[in-house]
Amino acid sequence: MPPPFFIITIDTEGDNLWTQHRHITTENARYLQRFQTLCERFAFKPVYLTNFEMANDPVFQAFGRDVLRKGTGEIGTHVHAWNNPPLTSLTDDDDRHQPYLIEYPEAVMREKFLVTHRLLEDVFQTPMVSHRAGRWAFDARYAKLLAEHGYHSDCSVTPEISWRTTKGDPTGQGGTDYRAFPRHAYFLDLDHIERAGHSTLLEVPMTTRLKHGALTNAIKNFIARCRGKSNTPSVAWLRPRGGNVTAMQTLAARVLTEPAADYLEFMLHSSEFMPGGSPTFQTAEHIEKLYADLETLFSWLATRCRGATLEEYYRFRTVSI
């Protein structure tokens, strides 16, 4: 059997959006080349899932065109609804609440998506076929919109995780609950995105797994209830958080033993490569430690996996079925 794929996804967006500021900058575009060079050394191919402000950044435009010219990565679509034209207020302060795209009226949702979709295709002169929803918020209407516009893959699903308690619109129901969704890639039922169907849109869920087994989680949940608290099971991500390279290797090794596993999916935000671009990596020292962890992880994965973009993985799946 061929080795599994290693898919690197980068949410490519403005600087430190966790601070919910009104003036969004894109300095992090200047820090991406170092990461790209590292990936190319291991024959890994990042997918830069790009939102509106980054699509308008000249430095990122030049960087992305070069990646596409060399065939060493992919550009995909990523929509942050609150600052993506057309600007239509949903809450009393959208910059602070950062509402989900799926919380807007469907007509507005469509317009916002199409602005970034068309901008990216115009800037990079290539069809957009890969996508991740902003703030992981996805539903059947969104899936149908992607299928309608020729998308091949989405990677918004985070197995084991519910975003219901993470609010966008403070009067809304929160984000998407993915706890009952498949762990491995599947072609979507566009009416019921939690299950496989016969559409041409491939869902490629993030590599996320419960940290503990069913018995441990049951015990932790019982203790939490006795204390009058709700328990949210701990989830491991294939995502750097500073000093967690061993945990990422452990997760990857575990997933690769699963019978249906033919890929691992890694994610990070573009701003996390810049000092001060995120809450996690605030200093130049933090960035150097991040790159040391990436070097260790990528070296380990290079002997177990082969690099691929989302589109390359999609082509593999369409040929293999």
Mean pLDDT equals 94
Give the radius of gyration.
19 Å
Q: Name the shape in a single word.
A: globular
The CATH C-level name is Alpha Beta
* N-to-C span: 15 Å
As a percent range, the share of helical residues equals 25-40%
CATH superfamily: Glycoside hydrolase/deacetylase
Number of helices: 10
Q: The biggest beta sheet, please?
A: 10 strands, mixed
The secondary structure category is alpha/beta
How many beta-strand runs? 12
Strand content: 15-25%
Element string (H = helix, E = strand) = EHEHHEHHEHEEEEEHEHEHEH
Q: Unreliable runs, pLDDT <50, ≥5 residues?
A: none
How many separate structural domains?
A: 1
CATH hierarchy: architecture: Alpha-Beta Barrel
CATH topology: TIM Barrel
Briefly, what is this?
The chain is of the alpha/beta class and 321 residues long.
Layout of helices and strands, plus pairs?
Blueprint: E1 5-12, H1 32-41, E2 47-50, H2 52-55, H3 58-70, E3 74-79, H4 94-97, H5 106-124, E4 130-133, H6 140-148, E5 153-154, E6 186-189, E7 192-196, E8 202-203, E9 208-210, H7 214-226, E10 235-237, H8 245-256, E11 263-269, H9 284-302, E12 306-307, H10 310-320
Helix pairs in contact: 8-9
